[in-house]
Amino acid sequence: MDVVAIMEALAEQGVTVLFKADAERMAERGKPWTFVASGAPLREDVLVRTDAASVEQCLAMLCLPRLRELGFSFPE
Q: In whole angstroms, what is the distance from residue 51 CA to residue 36 CA?
């Protein structure tokens, strides 16, 4: 999975994408990775966000399927 290519494809469609690694949650063996997608192409009340144990889980669990449902395209 090419995370940079996915982020670039979404940005080209006007979506702001943020990935975050939280040091405190990582030390606690929690869900240190956060993915957030927002911006003009999404309705004001839509925010695609999740926390997970890995980057891949952030994308596969919720975010990429939800963004596809909303009509966005990006590399597999």
A: 9
